[in-house]
DNA sequence: CTGAAAGCGCTTACAG
DNA sequence: CTGAAAGCGCTTACAG
């Protein structure tokens, strides 16, 4: 007979120094589906059916309700290990991102993990992003067997390594066309960059440059394309552009060169907040004031956007929502549905790093 | 910093799944311990003993080697669900932190998750940090059954909710005395703050103030205490201090007040990089140059430390190592060992936000 | 509509 | 030193 009780009952149990249960399964054992079945006066099979919501047309409503009540009274929670063993699933999803230390991907992960937790699944991060190209088996090195994969912002080259795993794949922030993904979830980055361009145009800026990320992925290509198109359509095309690695210091070096052009640009649109922070750094070194002499915009709305002075005007990407939506899509695929492609809205967050275009010659 | 998505070529890598699929449910079924046993000519029990490294004195060395070889040849990896079901463990560890969005805790989590993965365990984050005080059962709301708990930088009040769970507990960045933790892992924060103080004293600063975190936890109390003691011992005690919430904007407001004192302080030691960024903001608004007029130091070495201009001199805390060491300690507890208390070294990273004390009257 | 039974892959007493 | 056997808690055909 299984008991359930609070920790206080532990005091009565003998605790050897080298414990009887080295696995840490302390305390009285939890109620099982057998206990629920007994209490509800049904079989274990009925309990399983009802609790997994597969009972319609197979169990009578009153019995289903009785099962639910018994489960509630007992505080029953299914043993995930048993369920997985029986069902063949592993309960773990691999999240592949290009850089683990990046705050954006940390937020994507948080969003995905939260949704996974609701379903008793867990998320493992791909542990060595550097090795994703030549690694013969990225999945084995993940240290777990997998039910599916979510990949974010990957280069198409790196994506090849993800195929052939035969696992359901959901792509985030990636080309919705031509992938073998079962579903995609994308922030509307083109619209975001258009917002940034319009924001600067409205402030009177006419000499705008683009500090692009030196990363060959769909998301950054789209950013550059959308910005250039928007400005050109307004009759004030980009007057310059350059690429920098996603690193504040590297970006500062490249931005300094961009700012050396004459007439000097009055605004720089950056693909990413990290690049924008680099641009601000460059401005400061060059003796330019932000925003009086130079306006700067970023993308992401990371913590550093409000940490720098002035704070960054930026395009907020819904990182957590992307992770959550991606996980939800993957769960749908696992359930046999075809979720398709989703686009999430983004918004411009105006802050201190942008202002009216300086008047007079540059 | 890692470059996003920039992976080496993977040409030559076979795209077709070869042999037994390492990925689990899809494709041909994975080899089981039974397959290994068959191939090695032993029983399943022997395989289990050998592969879990519990074979000494129970299995002859040649047979043990044969088992290992068979497992290698087959690409055998144990089914975690089966192992957990049998052993009673759940394979999941709860990590409780005060703020999920904080980069420091994200790094602690990464370190813990990496070590956990090596052992086939997974880490769940406490999902609602706000609720940790009054929550009647934080464990149930974690959405999973647990083998143990790691808690970082928690207020003692919040800690009470963690007791009574009856689960093995490892504390990070917390008071090593008087807790019911089985083990603690702490960065040497007092030494870190002493370093900051010495660094400024050596640069000639005599009017130093402390911008403290308005958070009532052991780690921040220790920081203030160590700094005050170090400066007092040198004959140049703190000339002021104030507390601010861990938020750049809030810190800037408080720092402005600190900097209004006359004679003006020449250096501000901050409990955290976020506070230091706020202090830099305040300096800029006040018209003070960093570091010419004011030196600023932080603690953590977050990404923002190098994103701001000038970059922050800071005390680097080994966040990943703490998470990893904490997980290792917890695994030892689970194995029946008593790991005790560990202190991890910290180091001062001098950057542009500190310089020689300004000469002349403040 | 419902229950009895088999079995997922592993670990652990237990008997040799 | 080694193997046969039981069983962890669940889900799923299958037989009523």
UniProtKB/TrEMBL annotation, chains A, B:
Gene3D superfamilies: 3.40.50.2300, lambda repressor-like DNA-binding domains. SUPFAM superfamilies: lambda repressor-like DNA-binding domains, Periplasmic binding protein-like I. It comes from the Bacteria. Keywords: DNA-binding, Transcription, Transcription regulation. CDD domains: HTH_LacI (cd01392), PBP1_LacI_sugar_binding-like (cd06267). Residues 31-87 form the HTH lacI-type domain. One of its GO terms (molecular function) is transcription cis-regulatory region binding. Residues 1-42 are annotated as: Disordered. PANTHER family: LACI-RELATED TRANSCRIPTIONAL REPRESSOR, TRANSCRIPTIONAL REGULATORY PROTEIN. This is LacI family DNA-binding transcriptional regulator. It comes from Streptomyces alkaliphilus. The lineage of its organism: Bacteria, Bacillati, Actinomycetota, Actinomycetes, Kitasatosporales.
């Amino acid at each position: 007979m299984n008991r359930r009780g609070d920790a206080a009952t532990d005091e009565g149990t003998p605790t050897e120094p080298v414990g009887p249960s080295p696995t840490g399964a302390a305390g009285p054992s939890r109620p099982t589906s057998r206990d629920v079945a007994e209490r509800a006066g049904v079989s274990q099979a009925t309990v399983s059916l009802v609790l997994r919501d597969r009972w319609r047309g197979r169990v009578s409503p009153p019995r289903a309700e009785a099962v639910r009540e018994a489960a509630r009274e007992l505080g029953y929670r299914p043993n995930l290990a048993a369920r997985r063993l029986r069902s063949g699933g592993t309960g773990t999803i691999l999240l592949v991102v290009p850089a683990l230390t990046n705050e954006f991907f940390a937020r994507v992960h948080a969003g995905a993990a939260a949704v996974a937790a609701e379903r008793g699944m867990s998320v493992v991060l791909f542990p060595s992003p550097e090795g994703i190209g030549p690694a013969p088996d990225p999945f084995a090195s993940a240290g777990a067997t997998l039910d599916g994969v979510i990949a974010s912002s990957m280069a198409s080259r790196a994506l090849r390594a993800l195929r052939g795993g035969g696992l359901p794949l959901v792509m985030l922030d990636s080309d919705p066309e031509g992938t073998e993904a079962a579903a995609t979830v994308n922030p509307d980055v083109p619209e975001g960059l258009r917002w940034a361009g319009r924001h600067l145009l409205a402030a009177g800026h006419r000499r705008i440059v683009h500090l692009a990320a030196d990363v060959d992925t769909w998301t950054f290509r789209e950013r550059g394309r959308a910005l250039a198109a928007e400005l050109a359509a307004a009759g004030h095309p980009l007057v310059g552009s350059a690429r920098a690695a996603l690193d504040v210091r590297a970006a500062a070096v490249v931005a300094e060169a961009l700012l050396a052009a004459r007439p000097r640009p009055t605004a720089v649109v950056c693909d990413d907040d990290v690049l924008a922070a680099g641009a601000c750094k460059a401005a400061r070194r060059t003796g330019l004031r932000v925003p009086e002499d130079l306006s700067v915009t970023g993308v992401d709305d990371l913590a550093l956007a409000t940490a720098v002075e002035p704070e960054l005007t930026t395009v907020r990407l819904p990182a957590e929502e992307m992770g959550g939506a991606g996980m939800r899509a993957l769960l749908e695929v696992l359930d046999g549905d075809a979720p398709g492609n989703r686009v999430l809205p983004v918004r411009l967050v105006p802050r201190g790093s942008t202002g009216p275009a300086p008047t007079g010659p540059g």
